[in-house]
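SEVERITY: medium
COMPONENT: batch folding queue
REPORTER: lab tech (J.R.)

DESCRIPTION
The queue accepted two submissions in a row. Attaching both inputs and their returned structure tokens so the on-call engineer can compare them side by side.

ATTACHMENT 1
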Amino acid sequence: MPAPAQPLDFGILLALAYQNFVRDLRAHLAEQGFDDLGRSDGFVFRALGARPMTVSDLAARLDVTKQAAAQIIDDMQRRGYVVRTPDPDDRRAQRLELTARGKSALAAAHRFHQRYERRLAGDHGAPALGALREILGAMATEPDQTPDPRLRALYL
């Protein structure tokens, strides 16, 4: 991309960096055999990677309706990433868990994240990466700012 006549706005830089990160992540996952991932799958992988939960729990975590969560899970189950099992605590409920394929996809994403950070540290130095993480962390947790509830699945 040729350098613009004026420096790009900070928000544009953040958006472009994120877009490139996601593009590289999707390419990596496709190379690992996960070329069928949907936009919401990462949120579900993170949520269920922490612990099994019901559709109601997942819906609350993602801040979507139970019907929306059930549709996402139906699709992920069809693709082999999630399985429903009887909930041992409530016979009326079903527990959602990642399948071996789901756990493999989540592990591949974690490896990509680690490799991406190592590359940034190699290209720009560990102190610069540490400063970037600190700045982004501060931006993400500014006081009096309520983060988009859909992102809760990533950090709760």
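ATTACHMENT 2
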Amino acid sequence: MGVYSRAPLAFERGEGSRLYTADGEAYLDCMAGIAVNALGHANPVLVDALKAQAEKLWHVSNIFKIPGQEALADRLTSISFADVVFFTNSGTEAIECAIKTARKHHWANGQPERIDIIGFEGSFHGRTIAAVNASGNPSYLEGFGPPLPGFVHLPFGDVELIRKAIGPTTAAIVVEPVQGEGGARAWTEAALCEIRQLCDETGVLLIYDEIQCGLGRTGKLFAYEWAEDAAPDIMALAKALGGGFPVGACLATVDAAKGMTVGSHGSTYGGNPLAMAVGLAAVDELIKPALMDHVNELAGYLNQQLTGLRERFPDVVVDIRGKGLLIGIKLATPNREFMQHARDEHLLIAGGGDNCVRLLPPLVLTQAEAREAIEKLERACERARTQAKAA
């Protein structure tokens, strides 16, 4: 189906932070499959884990115990707020599970009227029907029938409006601590703490969508850890969780998941042995303290250099946003054109809302590669300036 506006590029192989076309042209990858390949392409640890599992067992039904699920669930709960995990194939499925978990929690508490999910303008939670209804982008709903009941959208960043919006039918608030598609906008730590307090006061569950910003992307293992005492009740993960292999997870406290009893939810492929083997290997790499130190050092360098670019090219670069290695560059020139200028320099970057482009490099990007990315971005800015003057 013609649903993608594809760039005229095809890649044959990848290694670390590089992608290679069939004729051997190398591109510096600063989008990492949209924050997926957090450990780089063809990471040997992940390759070995996949090969070893592939020679043993690919798939069994979830009517049987799957030891890999138990191992990865134990790892995730040991490093997070959560008590229980449901494994999915994708981020949007993790969001579906989160919404169902929140609503079923209130049903189990004798409050079935509490179904409303409060979300925010600019948010993106996936492409299934419930996920696009939870997302704050009306264009994703166009042509797919009327909006579903039970979803409320508020402006980004206004905690007082959240307070006013909470009512007797509110089930949960779903927040990306750092918006990805919405233009790399980060909630302040104070705002996340206020939202957590609001939820505690009203019995509303707090859902974090850390599909893009989680698992080290912001410089801490989970983005919510930047805000003290702001842990969620439910959290959706994916992307970096498999390092490129399709896997997602919905994490929850045992209380939040009290309604998710036998038969409440399920998946054919979710939690399959291949995904669990790669996921466990990926998480064990991502939790290494040295990697988080590297992410924070790299993020500091990139933000400093990008601020310099903004000062040198104020007619091209308007603002630098985001957190850690989820970096947004708001542009004065069209972002799609700027992405092409970057590709002309053999640099891959992602688009974003609010006329932004995003840098989402592998977390293992080297200092030398970061310098190279800045040099390529500078030349892309020069191209954008020249094109704007010629227009």
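NOTES FROM REPORTER
The first strand starts at residue 11 and ends at 15.
No errors were logged for either attachment.
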